[in-house]
Specification:
This protein is of the alpha+beta class and about 350 residues long. It contains nine helices and 20 strands. The site of flavin-adenine dinucleotide (FAD) has 35 residues, from β2, β8 and β14.
Length: about 350
């Protein structure tokens, strides 16, 4: 049997791959992509597998795991340009830049996965996202069969979105990210805090700056409390993080919501809290566990995290269908209660919600 994809994903679901390759150099990445394309084989790219839910039937093409490593720091008077190979673990990069006295990535601490995947959905958390410090992305363009460099302005960044994601079909990107360059400030002070909970916990006002290392420690603490830092001993972290994006609705829809519904202006509309909507639709933490309401949905094998209603977790032995059963129940419940349809954040491979 081929490589089991459940072993490559943080949710721990996914059947076998027809073909599996791991590429440790940029040349090997490009060669593997070209070989699959020349042979007309389907190609699924995987980094850390932390934003993918793959079908129990597996994948009938080539799965390529990008396992390149390397970080280059070029320091100038104001700061530094940091170029990172796509396969390098993201959180190692955050830590390394802070150790080098560079600020800008601290609020993005504790996010699993590879650096090459961060521009794909414009990874973000605690009021920050990668588009703010990213300068360029070097890619292999599969359509043109050539190397290409995109600047930030070319990448069409939005909330959990980018050109890279918009041109990815079923986990198969047109542009394969080879490396990512960030511009960071030489400072022990982090970027202004743009998230109320983070500011409160740090004891500063929103908009103020705090020591970058303190921001990292505080973010890691807050995330761990929500099951949002990978921990093999904690089933609440066997997930893709947030399963649903925060919906952006028009003013009319927002006006119908109760007054205490969290809301923020965003992308020409109002961004709501998916976690709040889920909770208020009757799905509490742990929904789907035996003994609790909804245990019948996925037999206790999959459930909402016991620490956060936005993560769908594998409690042990879950299938992709168990994960989707929880997702469908939650989506239907929110739609029934508020008339709002939630959309999945992770890519679903060979699956439909
Ligand atoms: C516990 C937990 C917490 C999380 N918290 C957050 C959070 O706070 N904020 C957030 O934004 N996300 C979060 N995530 C989601 C996830 O970690 C990020 O989206 C991460 O960037 C995915 O990286 P990856 O390497 O695991 O990507 P994968 O899951 O391996 O792949 C995701 C997508 O990126 C594509 N891809 C991967 N590598 C490349 C490449 N080199 N070139 C082109 N395409 C590529 C894949 O084909 C796929 O389409 C969380 C996940 C977990 C499990």
């Amino acid at each position: 049997m081929g490589q089991l994809l459940s072993a490559l994903t943080t949710t721990g679901v996914g059947g076998p791959a027809a073909g599996y390759l791991e590429a440790k150099t940029e040349v090997a990445v490009i060669e593997a992509v070209r070989a699959a394309d020349d042979a007309g084989r389907r190609l699924l790219l995987v980094g850390g597998g932390s934003n993918l839910v793959i079908s129990d039937d597996g994948y009938d093409g080539t799965v390529l795991r990008v396992a390149t490593r390397g970080v280059e720091i070029h320091t100038g008077p104001e700061g530094a340009r940091v170029t990172v190979q796509a396969g390098h673990p993201w959180d190692d990069v955050v830590q390394l830049t802070l150790e080098a006295g560079l600020a800008g990535l601290e609020a993005l601490s504790g996010i699993p996965g590879s650096t090459g995947a961060t521009p794909v959905q414009n990874v973000g958390a605690y009021g920050a996202d990668v588009s703010r410090t990213l300068e360029s992305v070097r890619v292999w363009d599969r359509q043109a069969s050539s190397l290409l460099v995109f600047g930030t302005a070319d990448l069409d960044f939005g909330y959990r979105n980018s050109l890279l994601k918009a041109t990815t079909v079923d986990g198969s990107p047109r542009y394969v990210v080879l490396d990512v360059t960030f511009v960071l400030e030489a400072s022990e002070w982090g970027s202004p805090i743009a998230y109320a909970e983070l500011a409160r916990t740090l004891g500063v006002e929103a908009g103020e700056r705090a020591k970058a290392t303190a921001v990292r420690d505080t973010v890691l603490g807050l995330r761990a409390g929500k099951g949002m830092v990978l921990d093999p001993a904690d089933r609440d972290t066997y997930s893709t993080g947030s399963f649903f994006t925060n919906p952006i609705v028009d003013a009319e829809t927002a006006a119908f919501l109760p007054g205490d519904a969290p809301r923020f202006p965003a992308d020409g509309g109002t961004k709501l809290s998916a976690a709040w909507l889920i909770d208020r639709s009757g799905f509490s933490k742990g929904f789907g566990l035996p003994g609790g309401a909804g245990a019948e949905v996925a037999g206790g094998r999959a459930a909402l995290s016991t620490k956060h209603t936005l993560a769908i977790t594998n409690r042990g032995g879950a299938t992709a269908q168990d994960i989707l059963a929880i997702a469908r129940a939650v989506r239907a419940g929110v739609r029934e209660r508020f008339g709002i349809t939630l959309h999945n954040e992770p890519l679903l491979i060979g699956l439909e919600l």
